[in-house]
Amino acid sequence: MNALTPVPLSLLAPEIAVTLALAAALAVGMKSRPSNGLLARAFGALGVLAGLILFFWGPAYSDTWLLRSGGVARAWQVFFHLAALFFLAAHEARGERPVALLLGALLGMDLLAAANDLFALFIGLELMSLPLYLLVYGLRPDKRKLEAAVKYFFTGGAASGLFLFGLSVWYAETGTTALAPGGLPSPGTSLALALMGSAALFKIGAVPFHFWLPDVYEASEPELSAFMSTAVKAAGVLLLMLLSIGHSSFDPLGGSGAAFPNLGAWLPAVSAATMTYGNLMALRQRSVRRLLAFSSIAHAGVLLAALWVWQDGGHGTELSTLWFYLGAYLFMNTGAFLFLALSGISEVEQLKGYGARAPWPAAFFALMLFSLGGVPPTAGFLAKFYVIWDLLKGSGAWLAAAVALNSLLGLGYYLSLVRTMTLDEPGPRTPDGSFCPSAAAGLVLLLCAAASLLGFIPEAREWLFTLLTL
Amino acid sequence: MLLTWLWLAPALAMIVVWAMPSRGLARGTALLFSLGLFAYSLWLLAPYSEGLLHLEELGVAGPLGIRYRLSVDGIALSLCWLSALLTVLSLAASWKADVPNAFWASFLGLEAALMGVFCARDLFYFYLFWDIALIPMFFIIGLWGSSGRRKASLKFVLYTFLGSLSLLIGLLALVTLHHQATGVWTWDMSALEKTPIAGRAALWTYAALALGFAVKIPVFPLHNWLPDAHTEAPAAGSVMLAGSMLKMGLFGFLRVLLPVFPDLSAAALPVLGGLGVVNILYGALCAMAQSDLKRLVAFTSVSHLGFCLVGLFSLTAAGIAGASLQMLNHGLSTGGLFLLVGMLYERAHRRGLNDFGELASRTPIFAFFFAFILLSSIGLPGLNGFVGETMCLAGMAKASLPLTALGLIGTVLAAAYGLPAFQAVFWAPAGPGSASPGLADLDLRERLILWTLVALILWLGLYPRPMLELLEPAASALAQR
Question: A164 and A273 in one domain?
């Protein structure tokens, strides 16, 4: 495994499929006539789907010095592909460029999930980030987008720099870049991990690396914000997880135990600070997009709590709490942002009385909000339920209380959105009830609604675990 | 499936009613469904007496130990009746309201959730139904309440959600502690009851659970959400809130805390029994100070539920049976008072104590019903409230005499807030700004609704034996632990 043998190409079949789709999208875009980008989106979706199938087609598990496939890596890759599919289904803007950029970012995420080496990790991170800067800038940029993209680019660049610096320190201390046990912790390795961990926290949008996030989410197209808040956030969590426990300790095929010295000593504090900050700020927002951006910070805090439990030793089947949370969040947050995209609403003011104008879309949005707020019987409730339970089983009773109190804060603003939508009279700025998703976007909406009703099935997490570790 | 239908039928009916093409049709279907469910809940006594209602299970428990399980004892069954009855009465009382399908559907959804809470035998599903009940009530208050509804609905949900979260943590801790003690994951209440857990962790768990239930009842320092919610809710919403939803908290004490933590419950007597007495006195004193009829009734509700708490924490068979009976009584009499105030408000669009006067001569039928149900609420011997309160206090007398004595004062205070209110509305001379002139008396529909209540009040007051025979086995089983 340590010898630098070539990685068999068959292992990369899913990534190759995505790359081909990327090339196809670019090729379609080369013709001079302006197009609506539908063909490129179709190619993109095909490639992402093909990749999804190929993940399951290939060997159940394999491990090389640079990459691994199957096992836990595949679970993450499936998640990223789903998020990408949702974006492609919802993205109605013209042009091929966004499709190609998104596929590029997806490749980076796939690589991140499969990385077995810190360099592979870094390449994945960069491959994911660079297209995103451009995606935020968008096709028809305005001042706000420009500001957001520049902000994102500079801070993101700094985060990459931190990661690279941390990697160098790590290499200097240990003489290896393999994602494998690093021996006894020393000041040097601790510094290295802190630097690399900061980069991960940046991608997650955790306090104190959150400041870019509200501007970027508010300025981007809602479907991009959905992608960023789910896939990119998940990539950050994945990165942090790889840094703190590595692949092996919980891979279904077993492994060599903790990969790195404990990175998680400060994780509970960051988690509590992140969720509290996100919720408190969200309470004061007048823009729904910005509110959802802060709410995504709050959810990132809970995700960190779930990650902490996981790496706090794991408790058997509860390994999948983090996945379930991410999965539930993927559906409910995509649903919420998609609603904003399709209804053309961005200010809370515009929601006034929307329920009377368009009952079904409003009911859908309310369902998403209830799920985000963790009210039974939604998937969001179940996700929170698992996290609190796992925290109580471990040594995190105070963090469990923090999660619970934060979910009360969260319900405060989610519910007041529902209230504005249903209880208030329509105002002058309330849009008319027109809400006509394309077939693909409609399908995503239905999926989101269905997934958000998972709360009736208490063993849903175990099902998911079985599904992902087939 | 016998018990499953209790919640599944109204849940399905909710969808049907929602999808009805016209408002009139939705209203009729909803009332018909609720009547049918009430009949069904009565019929359940037959299989219950044959011991067929004890357990309904579905599937097998997974690695989390959660399994769909329903079962009722006499107390739970009586609360199911009460919820079904109050749903019928609420819908009938709102008959003339011009409201969309969603109104009628919300009540059925609420009924489904309540039935689920009262029947659940698995704590996960108990909690699931517990929280689901919040959503329809949020819309009932928020959409069809009076002027302050925007604020009251949010306050109601957030406040009680705080209780829910505390409950959730308590339940999770309980299950986890049970696992530590036995090595088995289970959410089954009957399994949890068998393994007593003790120690510091148990104390915290008990506190978290008690806090969760206490918010719902609500117990004294946590009662702040209740007056607003009641005042702003539509009359039918207040009936369901007071009549059925508040019982969820007491039911939680009865179903979870008493059986699982018998020792801690005995130790908690001075605290929780004491808070019950505080509830009795504080509620009564606050009621005396109100000038809004609906707010007054809301505070009497705080006072009455104090009796239930006192009865429960006496941990005697008589006390627990009395508390269960008092839950029913409170549903009938407070529910009835809310209906009456609602009828008055529907006519006059006012409900201040001093907005009326001389109603005894102008609307004699209304006055009769009001007096009757008020007296039942005050606890006049011969009517239902007297039986329940006496049993609660008698039970407590075995446990703590000082608390009993203090509770007795509450029965006197009840007359002190009830009778002056009656005087002001019905006997006092109508002032110049009075809303009394021109008020129409009750029509046949309203009289039918109230006669139902009066009949039940009389039955429970004069011949409570059959009902007590239903409640007592469950109560003494609890008391023996």
Answer: no
**Mean of pLDDT values over B168-182:** 91
Rg (CA), chain A: 21
3-state secondary structure of B390: helix
Q: What is the pLDDT of residues B414-465, one digit of tens each?
A: 988 989 899 888 888 887 878 878 888 889 999 999 999 999 999 999 998 9
For residue A250, the enclosing domain spans 9-255
Instruction: Compute the CA torsion angle B79, B81, B82, B87 (nearest 10 deg).
Output: 130
Separation CA A444–CA B204 (nearest Å)? 44
Give the CA-trace dihedral at A383, A388, A393, A397, to 10 degrees: 160
| Nearest Cβ partner for B172 among A388, A411, A462 | A388
CA dist., res. B325 & res. B317, Å (int): 12
Continuous segment of H or E residues that includes residue B192: helix B189-194
Nearest to B113 by CA among B146, B141, B147, B79: B79
Is the Cα torsion angle A168, A169, A173, A174 positive or negative in sign? negative
Nearest Cα neighbor of A461 from A379, A400, A404, A398 is A379
Cβ-Cβ contacts under 8 Å, B153 against chain A: 419, 423
Report yes or no: B149 at the A interface, CB cutoff 8 Å: yes
Q: What is the ipTM of this complex?
A: 0.89
- Positions of E strands within B152-222: none
Residue A14 has pLDDT above 90, yes or no: no
Write out pLDDT tens, residues B100-140. Answer: 888 999 999 999 999 999 999 999 999 999 999 999 999 99
> Are residues B322 and B306 in contact, defined by beta-carbon separation less than 8 angstroms?
no
Q: Are residues A427 and A353 in the same domain?
A: yes
pLDDT of res. A256? 38
Number of domains chain A contains? 2
Nearest CA in chain A to B177: A393
**A242 and A269, same structural domain?**
no
Tokens representing A333 are 């947050």
Give the DSSP per-residue string, A97-142. HHHHHHHHHHHHHHHHHHB-BHHHHHHHHHHHHHHHHHHHH-SS--
Specify whether A402 is located in the same domain as A335.
Answer: yes
Q: Which two tokens stand for residue B128?
A: 């699931």
Boundary of a domain, candidates A255, A285, A315: A255
Same domain, A300 and A415: yes
What is the rounded distance in angstroms from the CA atom of residue B347 to the CA atom of residue B356?
A: 12
Check residue A246 and give its pLDDT: 65
Which of A457, A459, A463 should one mutate to test binding to chain B, selecting the residue with the greatest count of B CBs within 10 A? A459
> Read out DSSP for B287-303?
HHT--BHHHHHHHHHHH
Give domain status of residue A245, yes or no.
yes
Are the beta carbons of A392 and B139 separated by less than 8 Å? no
**Residues A248 and A366 occupy one common structural domain:** no
Measure the CA dihedral A316/A317/A318/A324, to 10°: 150
CA-based radius of gyration for chain B: 21
- How close A315 comes to chain B (CA, Å)? 12
Contact check, Cβ <8 Å, A455/B128:
yes
Is B150's CB within 8 Å of A419's CB?
yes
Q: Where are the domains of chain B?
A: 268-481
Chain B residues in contact with A412 (beta carbon < 8 A)? 154, 158
Beta strands in A233-344 (DSSP E): none
- Specify if A1 maps to a domain: no
DSSP string covering A93-108? -SSSHHHHHHHHHHHH
Q: Which tokens is A55 given?
A: 């993940």
Report which of residues A440 and A112 the model is more confident about. A112
What is the Cα–Cα distance from B106 to B17, expressed in whole angstroms?
10
